[in-house]
Specification:
- Helices cover 36% and strands 9% of the residues.
- By secondary structure, the chain is an alpha+beta fold.
- Among the domains are: 202 residues, no CATH class; 46 residues, Complement Module, domain 1 (Ribbon), CATH 2.10.70.10; 41 residues, Laminin (Ribbon), CATH 2.10.25; 29 residues.
- It has a four-stranded antiparallel sheet. A two-stranded antiparallel sheet has the order 1-6. A two-stranded antiparallel sheet has the order 2-3.
- Strand 16 and strand 17 form a beta hairpin.
- The two termini are 42 Å apart.
Amino acid sequence: MRAVVVLAVTLVVACTEVLFPFIWRGKELLWGKTEDSDVISVVEQSRLLVDGAIRRTLERNLRKREVLSPAQLLSLSKVPEPTSGAVSRAAEIMETSIQAMRVRQSRRPTDVFSEDLLTVIANVSGCLPHMLPPKCPDSCLAGRYRLITGACNNREHPRWGASNTALVRWLPPVYEDGFSQPRGWNRGFLYSGFPLPPVREVTRQVIQAPNEAVTEDERYSDLLTAWGQYIDHDVAFTPQSTSRAAFWGGVDCQLTCENQNPCFPIQLPENAPGTRPACLPFYRSSAACGTGDQGSLLGNLSRANPRQQMNGLTSFLDASTVYGSTPAAERQLRNWTSAEGLLRVNARHRDAGRAYLPFAPRPAPPACAPEPGAPGTARAPCFLAGEGRASEVPSLTALHTLWLREHNRLAAAFKALNAHWSADTAYQEARKVVGALHQIITLRDYVPKILGPEAFEQHVGPYDGYDPTVNPTVSNVFSTAAFRFGHAAVHPLMRRLDAHFREHPDLPRLHLRDAFFNPWRLIREGYNAWRQFCGLPRLETRAHLHAAVADGSVADKIMALYKHPDNVDVWLGGLAENFLPGARTGPLFACVIGKQMKALRDGDRFWWEHGPVFTDAQRRELRKHSLSRVICDNTGLARVPVDAFRVGKFPEDFESCANIPGMSLDVWRETFPQDECGLPGKVDNGDFVPCEESGRRVLVFSCRHGYQLHGPAQITCTQRGWDSQPPTCKDVDECADPARPPCHPSAQCRNSKGGFRCACADPYVLGDDGRTCVDSGRLPRASWVSIALGALLVGGVAGLSLVAICRW
């Protein structure tokens, strides 16, 4: 019976994914008009296509859950956080719907859709809420603490810099079809009269180098590289498509060598040994809602809008690596039972009394290498942090751990200084200081070393105050190319040192490949267009390229592969340029990184130097702090370099932590106001933060994620006491929202206090997304019970028969 059901489901899926486009087209020819009901039907069929591809991906992941291959681990690091996953899924449904509509209208004289039609598609697909401006709070806290999503930083443009919005473009994208297909999508497509070289050949001939050829940086420590990666993870994360199978036809991206969205495989040379198929799997990035074929509600929705990539993080230097970029992530990270506003820590392991990052809770699948000595090959849980790549390499894990400890140190100290502060006040103040320290260390200590003094002065310069006309959103070229220069700076061997900063005699150097996802061991546009954007001369000839690239053999290899300088990718071209004096980048990347850092600073209303954010006394104390001081306060080390980013010899270049300056927290001490009001009692599942409005004390209330405020959002102290009773926080029934159901239709949604869970009927189990039921591949428990009862019955009958025969 089960085989018949499986066959029926297979036929339905096949019809859905192959025949529906032709059915839709036939309907168009018969009716000649697109009605709203037809549009909704198209969107629902597109939803089936996308969800079918996602479900096949989840089933394959379930089968390979115990595999510890590099490809599996890397793909898990690119899985979007649930909120980002929902946005990505909606964008893919909308994009697929518009492709289907284009098939329907293929015989019409125009491919332009009306704004009303696209609005219907955006609404039914689930994209519309992510395309509209967010509702910004207007309480007295609006200028005091930034929102966890980064939204409403700019009051006129509330989506600038917010998480799960599109990366910004500083130059128009170069798509082969004008709006969606990346360079190299269509074989035989020519650039400057030549085809683009296979990316694998570029890697092999230009980028690849033996470990022995990698030299040490004589000026800067490995921490400079680690900080760059860490900060990159603070401002940008472009998730891959939520599916690993093609939407049209259902081809597994792991098996196909054809370019079928979202599959974009890397072709291998035909003579490559042992390659079946002759390509490496690769996936396109998630599109942002309202881009690609989709148009934009914020512009002209009826006109094609080039595909843009989504940033799952806030663009700001706001320590989202520590706190997350969505309310759901923040909910997991905070210790809600703490009166000091602490973050959660690991309950199973300690480092000489100091905290480790907590492990990722269920239903997140275990995705990291197991603890040494653990039986079998089962994966172990990864660490939980504000950013999902915290367990990628030990240096990242160490920095995440450092800032977790720093937050808890600050929050506990603030609560001790101000006993009247609520847990939320202590949390928000510590978060604000940690964000400021990220900004100070990055702009004061890190970026000048990367750009060099001249380029820093040219592209960044001194701070002149907050500029609301500056868009701080991270740019595509910065995220995917310029700030990826650090990938070439990572040393292939990791040194493990003893207490005296010498190589440990019992712990040899560790290959980087053995350190990935092991928490237990603590190319888009043309190069010349970006040079022109930065005011640099275009490279038109081989001689020009030789002048920009010091290594003549590298320049020759680039020309041999690309044939023309206009064809060179921006990442490769920028990486090969000669370093500027005192810098670790060439002129192009110095320009792009400098412009981006200036935008992140000048366009941030909560930048630490902006007048209203901190008092003058607090800013003076913040300037004294450094990464070296953070290390002293949170690791137990007694001596550190004064500048953590500079190479130093131990012990002569190391300073006692007693002599490393740091900020005094006394300037955060507040006097409890003596008025008629006092403080209200504890708010269950919520909290409050005090502030002033028109000279009066005000309490602003908020609820935890999963709860909704009932009553006034703020109350004011008057001569007769508080002008209102405090509000209450009531549980939100997420399962009752038909417009945005939290679980896939294959799962049953069950509400719980402050949240929900998706449940599956046996033998189905939840996939890695925590919302979709997939076939576990085993018989239902009821079948096993039936088999057991049947065996018992057969055994009993046989036993009775044997007894009867023996007696007879």
